[in-house]
Amino acid sequence: MPIYEYRCGGCGHEFEQLIRTGDVPACPSCKGQTLERLLSHCAVSSEHTRSLNFTKARAAARGVQRDKDVAQAEYEKKHHEEGH
Prior knowledge:
By secondary structure, the chain is an alpha+beta fold.
């Protein structure tokens, strides 16, 4: 049973669905059957792509940590000012 990717013509929702022979797919959001089958993206894994993904993940984690640090500093400043 293949998995196909679709875009609903009614609501624009994109989704994947496992299709058995004879099944007529429907949009899980609006139940519409005006669907466009999309080309599936293939995934390639190599040392280079893994390295790129790790680099992106580390950068994202640094951004999240920076946001947490700023929020913590603001919280501490606010409570320090309220205490005086």
